[in-house]
Amino acid sequence: MRKVQLITSNLGKLKEFRAALEPLGYDVAHLPLEVEEIQADTLEEVVVDCMRQVRALKVKDFIIDDSGLFVDALKGFPGVYSSYALRTLGCEGLLKLLEGADKRTARFECCVGCSLEGREDIVLSEACEGRIVQGMRGQGGFGFDPVFAAKGEERTFAEMPLDEKNAISHRGKAIKSLARQLR
Ligand code: IMP
């Protein structure tokens, strides 16, 4: 088994990465390292800068990811500021910003960066298209899950069992895409 460290403060992500990468021979360990996120327009820029910081700490063989919710009627906000927007506005604040808006389309995006010795760095992004529903629904998940429904779905992410969410979510897709590239 080749060891790779996932840099995250979210243990839910660890489970998802493990399920996808262990069958490929990767032992995914948890590295709870605090990395500063720069202000940038895209998740890719944030991830690439985080990878630079981690490398400067002499950490080898690691994976890092960043995600966000991009709402079309808000010109992509909260996007790279999603964790800040969740802490300050919350789901209710986001719904308020969309009051009266005709267009409620949105997407979750996830960017994953993977640095393994002897391989070129991998930086990839995946998205899950959907919409912001009219009110908060569901008890599961985290973050903006109660207000987001994927395209063609009536249930919000917070109303879906975790394995169903992971099968279609931005992060689930990005992890599968990373597994494909590592194969
Ligand atoms: P991070 O990738 O954990 O840094 O995610 C940043 C922020 O994006 C979170 O604090 C949430 O606000 C939002 N977010 C990312 N992924 C999800 C998800 O799957 N469900 C709900 N909110 C998410």
What characterizes the major β-sheet?
A: 6 strands, mixed
* Element string (H = helix, E = strand): EHEHEHHEEEHH
* Bound molecule types: inosinic acid
Overall strand count: 6
Radius of gyration: 17 Å
Q: Helix segment count?
A: 6
Could you list the spans in which at least 5 consecutive residues all have pLDDT below 50? none
Classify the beta-strand content into a percent band: 25-35%
Describe the structure in your own words.
The protein has one domain (2-182): Maf protein (Alpha-Beta Complex). Helices cover 33% and strands 26% of the residues. The model has no long low-confidence stretch (mean pLDDT 96). With 183 residues, the protein is of the alpha/beta class. α3 (82-88) crosses α4 and α5 (162-168) packs across α6. It has 6 helices and 6 strands, in the order βαβαβααβββαα. Strands 2-1-3-4-5-6 form a 6-stranded mixed sheet. It has helices at residues 11-21, 43-56, 82-88, 90-97, 162-168, 170-182; strands at residues 2-7, 26-31, 62-71, 105-115, 122-132, 148-150. Residues 10, 65-69, 82-83, 86, 108, 141-145, 157, 169, 171 line the site of inosinic acid.
Helix and strand topology:
Elements: E1 2-7, H1 11-21, E2 26-31, H2 43-56, E3 62-71, H3 82-88, H4 90-97, E4 105-115, E5 122-132, E6 148-150, H5 162-168, H6 170-182
Helix pairs in contact: 1-6, 3-4, 5-6
